[in-house]
């Protein structure tokens, strides 16, 4: 006689077995050669059977080609396998070319839209910097435009002062050179004048015309030197 406890135990055991079912097989390469070959044969036959059933049930044109690890070929086709392969080539060639064209068209459209958006943003930004089209800006955005303008003006002033300082350094250097040339010419004139005083009759013919030319050159250089003179303590206003 089966008690209620035994019957309940059988029911629980059956339910546990139903819950467990078949264990999952880990999909990885089978290292044992014999086991690998046996598994290949079993699964190959199952695959061929499924291919046959699919072709019959769904009236599908189907071709299946399998190469074993030893290089043996197994195939199945419900039509001529070569004609099925040719049909596949034609279908893939057409679909690939059309799909590539569509992909390229979509890519260029997206890039064109991005460029148009960037151009629009830059145009709006330039207008904002010129004080135009400010009606749609918030207070925060106007502050950002103001900060950009201030930074730009600061960089312009810095570059302007840099160029002015370079010009001043050049003019000061040129002024020093002219002063040295003037001093040299003055010494030469003084030397000529002293020689004329010592030997007025003998050297007049030699130095005649030389002194006036040197004096004229000195006068011109002195005038130019005065024009180029710049106070050393001059400061620039921003």
TrEMBL record:
Keyword Transcription: yes
GO molecular function: DNA-binding transcription factor activity; protein dimerization activity; RNA polymerase II transcription regulatory region sequence-specific DNA binding
Regions annotated as coiled coil: 142-188
Cellular compartment(s): Nucleus
Family annotation (SUPFAM superfamilies): SRF-like
GO cellular component: nucleus
Boundaries of every K-box domain copy: 105-195
Keyword vocabulary terms for this entry: Coiled coil, DNA-binding, Nucleus, Transcription, Transcription regulation
CDD domains found in the cross-reference section: MADS_MEF2_like (cd00265)
PROSITE patterns noted in UniProt: K_BOX, MADS_BOX_1, MADS_BOX_2
Biased composition regions of type Basic and acidic residues, renumbered to the chain: 7-25
InterPro entries: MADS-box/MEF2_TF (IPR050142), MEF2-like_N (IPR033896), TF_Kbox (IPR002487), TF_MADSbox (IPR002100), TF_MADSbox_sf (IPR036879)
Record has Glycosyltransferase as a keyword: no
Pfam family for this entry, one: K-box
GO biological process: positive regulation of transcription by RNA polymerase II
Disordered: annotated span: 1-25
Residue span(s) of domain MADS-box: 20-80
PANTHER family: SERUM RESPONSE FACTOR HOMOLOG
Protein function: Probable transcription factor.
Protein name per the record: Uncharacterized protein
Organism: Saponaria officinalis (Common soapwort)
């Amino acid at each position: 006689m089966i008690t209620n406890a035994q019957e309940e135990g059988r029911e629980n055991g059956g339910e546990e077995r139903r819950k467990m079912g078949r264990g999952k097989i880990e999909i990885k390469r089978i290292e044992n050669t014999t086991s690998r070959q046996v598994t290949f044969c079993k699964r190959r036959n199952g695959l061929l059977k499924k291919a046959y059933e699919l072709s019959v049930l769904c009236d599908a044109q189907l071709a299946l080609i399998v190469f074993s690890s030893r290089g043996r070929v197994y195939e199945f086709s419900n039509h001529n396998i070569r004609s099925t392969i040719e049909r596949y080539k034609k279908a893939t060639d057409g679909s690939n070319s059309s799909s590539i064209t569509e992909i390229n068209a979509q890519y260029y459209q997206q890039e064109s839209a991005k460029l148009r958006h960037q151009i629009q943003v830059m145009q709006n930004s330039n207008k904002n910097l010129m004080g135009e089209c400010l009606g749609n800006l918030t207070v925060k955005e106007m502050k950002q435009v103001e900060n950009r303008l201030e930074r730009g003006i600061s960089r312009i002033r810095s570059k302007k002062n840099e160029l002015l300082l370079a010009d001043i350094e050049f003019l000061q250097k040129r002024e020093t050179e002219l002063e040295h040339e003037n001093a040299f010419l003055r010494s030469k004139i003084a030397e000529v004048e002293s020689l004329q005083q010592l030997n007025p009759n003998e050297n007049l013919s030699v130095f005649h015309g030389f002194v006036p030319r040197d004096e004229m050159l000195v006068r011109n250089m002195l005038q130019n030197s005065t024009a180029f003179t710049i106070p050393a303590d001059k400061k620039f206003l921003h």
